[in-house]
Model the fold of this input.
Amino acid sequence: MMRHLLLPRCGSLRQLSNPISLPRLAHYKAPRPPSPPTPPKPPKKPVSFTFHDETWEDPYSWMSNLSDKVAMRHMDVYMEQEEKYTEAVMSDAESLQSKLQSEMAFRMAPELSTPPIKFGPWLYYRRVEEGKQYPVLCRRLASLNEEFISNKSPSAGFDFTSGRRIEQKLIDYNQEAERFGGYAYEELSEISPDHRFIAYTMYDKDNGYFRLSVRDLNSGSILSKPQADRVSNLAWVKNGKALLYTVTDDKKRPYQIYCSMLGSNEEDVKLLEESDDNVYVNIRHTKDFQFVTVNTFSVTSSKVFLINAADPLAGMTLVWECEGKAHCIVEHHQGCLYLFTDATREGQPVDCHYLIYSPVVVSSGQRSWESVFIDDPGLIIEDVDFNATHMVFIVREGRNFRICSIALPLPRGKGAVYLKELSPLFLPLPKYVSQISPGPNYDYYSSVMRFTVSSPVMPDAVVDYDLPTGMWNIIQQKNILYERTRVLYGTASSASSLANASISKRSGSTDEAKFEDDVLWNDLSEFYACENYDVSSYDGVLVPLTIIYSRKNKKENHSPGILYGHGAYGELLDKRWKGELKSLLDRGWVVAYADVRGGGGGGKKWHHDGRRAKKHNSIEDFISCAKFLIDKKIVQEDKLATWGYSAGGLLVASAINSCPDLFRAAVLKVPFLDATNTLLYPILPLSPVDYEEFGYPGDVEDFHAIRKYSPYDNIQKNALYPAVLISSSFNTRGGLFISGDHVY
Done:
């Protein structure tokens, strides 16, 4: 029969002018497929643990014994075996991997420079020099050859008066890498208000902490003092003549504040030492550099103190305290303190932040705070920023984000008002905005504020918003259609006037983008659809689900899909456009985002309903979203993949443990998988925020919840799991062992 099927329809082989020899299929044996690679098996060394009258056995606890050199050698060997196994399993897809990598690399080419940030008379930016691994921090005077300022090459230009280049190199991080053993990672950097110094902290990987240095920007030399280790916060005082900094203890708890007088030979003065191991200390300067705020907080109380920046050694004044851990940010404007907080009000918890104010100088001994706005459930203030003339808000209406500004000073004598009564000016935004992030906005006296606007169907847009005029400019944005980056800062040469023109429009009373604005925003919704759903979870709570797909390439009822989630720390789910996902979308994939409980964007209750003993809500929400995609035939049943990062890795792994047959594949990036052991016996220091999120093992209810959701402790035996790729790193805070013991 098979021989018959191979014959040409035109006739017998004899009728062909050039006979062809065919193999004798009756005796043909197909080659055997190669045997699948054998996964590595790390050694088992069972150890029993007992807590709260529950006993369990862990055969891989040796992986977390960092002081055991033999165990760590075994770990190195095991990780090498895992890498080779992964390469062997993926070897049959090498050509596809190469093609995808080539596509993604083309779209993800790093920017040559950050958009210049104006601070006083200077423009500050970081740029990459050809052939160098790390960037260079530079600055130039904004007044010199302003027409040469561009995102692509802010260093271009020449000062014809002095005959010199207009750029000044401040820090070459390639040289910093030489100071720190070939690795350069900066956590903090603060320019002094007089623009003479920069204070910055670099990670010392050999010692595991951040080291403070102060560099003279005129000479380029590093000052002999202050040079401190384990530094976690910085704040300039005395107009740049002195620096405050906080120091952490061995458990990475910020607990000391020092004041260093630059140019002085005297020892740095200790302003505060917090002896309570449960209390953390944080400092920041107000935007006008008039004060430094000192926050001390624990799970039981929060306090804010004020230091006069002109006289930092004169002591601290308590301006605010409340019960419980609260987020408290204090700003100063023309003799008034503004506090943005989520602290309890009259003993009652609140679901969102609110703004209150109080004069700096109080006549009586008792300080009182008054509300700025009347609570409006339809318009939630998510963030606030100040400059000398305006207050700017990131607000949320339901799940929709907006930006608006109002003029300062605020009217007095009227008491609290609704925000809308002050005629806020709104910045037009594109469709489907998922996140708005404030820029550095260092310059208190600048009329321009910078924001990054994100959307699932639009590359991130860096936008400058001129507050007095309402004009807005897109400063930097990837142009996916042209596969390159627009040059939008100042005057720039370009082959395409539309793609490279400085985009400037006047904002109005609404943020609804018009159709013709889509081109200006580089909105891709013409090509990629974005749809929002409310998915009913196991308890009837509606969970927001966002999906995106190619309008041209989606395969009806047959589309593969990938579901992403995080659901921790009250953080907004990252739904920004990602260039690497374009390769999936253009192949007909559906990309979905599950805004499960525990994350942000829904108030404090939404966050609290997905943490500690209620962590199972996050997992059930994620499972419900996955089932929705399949039930509604948005994704084909046997073609749903999933991925998660860090705490999102815990979410995804727990969902897989609950429903192994729901997903076909999973990618876990630096995941938090061994929750029980990590919270009970932390190898790396954990903060109260971590325990507030995942639970206190000392609390019986929390402990039993941890045991139920911990991915490592709930792997089903004899169940068919999806293909899972786990990636980790020796340099991450979580540690390799937190992921490694999950793979066996």
In short: Confidence is low (pLDDT under 50) at residues 1-26, 483-503, 509-516, 732-738. DSSP finds 14 helices and 38 strands in the chain. Residues 69-89 form the longest helix (21 residues). The first strand starts at residue 47 and ends at 51.
